[in-house]
Amino acid sequence: MISVIIASFKEPKTIGRCISSIVNRKYSGIPTSFEIIQVSPDEETLNAGKKEAKKYRLGKKYIQIKDPKKGKPYALRMAFKQAKGDIFILTDGDTYFEKNAIKKLLEPFEDEKVGGVSGRPVSQDRRDNMFGYWGHLLSDSAHDKRSDSMERVKGKDYYVSRETFFPMSGYIMAVRNLNIKLPSNVLSDDAYISYYIRYKNLEIAYTPKAMCCVKYPTNFKDYMKQKVRSLGGYTQLEQMGIFKKDKQSRSFWIELQYTGFVLKYAKNFKEFIWSLLLFPTRLITWIKIFWERTILRKDMPKSGWERIESTK
Fold first, then answer.
1. How many other CB atoms sit within 10 Å of the CB of residue 302?
2. Is 194 exposed, middle or buried (0-12, 13-18, 19+ CB in 10 A)?
3. With 80 as the cut, is the pLDDT of residue 240 above it?
4. What whole-number distance in Å separates Cα of residue 207 and Cα of residue 282?
5. Which are the contacts of 93, defined by CB distance < 8 A and separation ≥ 6?
6. Helix 15-23 crosses helix 43-55 at what angle (to 10 degrees)?
7. What's the pLDDT tens digit per position in 36-51?
8. Are 254 and 248 in contact (CB under 8 A)?
9. What angle do CA 59, 65, 70 make, to 5 degrees?
């Protein structure tokens, strides 16, 4: 049985499309035995999800959990306790899957050593502006990093980690039911789960044909808010001592190794300038991360959920 867990906060306009892209079996390739668990703190998103579930007559296959607005990790912990599946698929309510995404996402589990699988986030933004271009660049660089860090399985459409790997994406990932004890204050839940799986001597797989459409920040304020939290989560994980079997995979110095990719990604002069502007922006991001996580020791915000307005 498959348990699809959708964590969503104030996303009534997008949760319907997210659910539809999963439960439409001819489109997604989801098996007959599944359940959808939506975890949201706000009534608007819960009502929108309920409306979509009614449209597809999901009945008992659809479960709602109203979390106490303590953040996504806390919401996931609540969903993990209630989920009945052998495999959990995790995603967010402001994304949607492309055709056959779930079918492709589940294929690597034919290998018993695989504990988790990442799909490929792709940008749904236009590339004709700087932030839209950055969204494409960063999502494609993550694809390049995952492909390069893992070993292509002969005759298959996916890669599997061996000595090295790159963490799964929280936008589209699947994990075995491993009774994961996710800390409620963790900032990068996808990275924590990835390292937890590796620590259990299981492999991480990457299937790029399982695609998830994502809208990225379209202004500097939202960009910094999102990246300081997601990338800063790796500093927090280091402080938690999670890097035992595997080394840290995200830092300013590690990102510098991708200078060539960033510069070659541009297709014209305007995009080349935008690529150059990404370097000081990432430097500012990592300085802010150092200040907030290492000096101030900031943790999960009191409100838990942080809304990135321009991604909705």
1. 7
2. buried
3. yes
4. 27
5. 6, 7, 8, 9, 11, 14, 15, 18, 38, 40, 45, 49
6. 30
7. 999 999 999 999 999 9
8. yes
9. 165
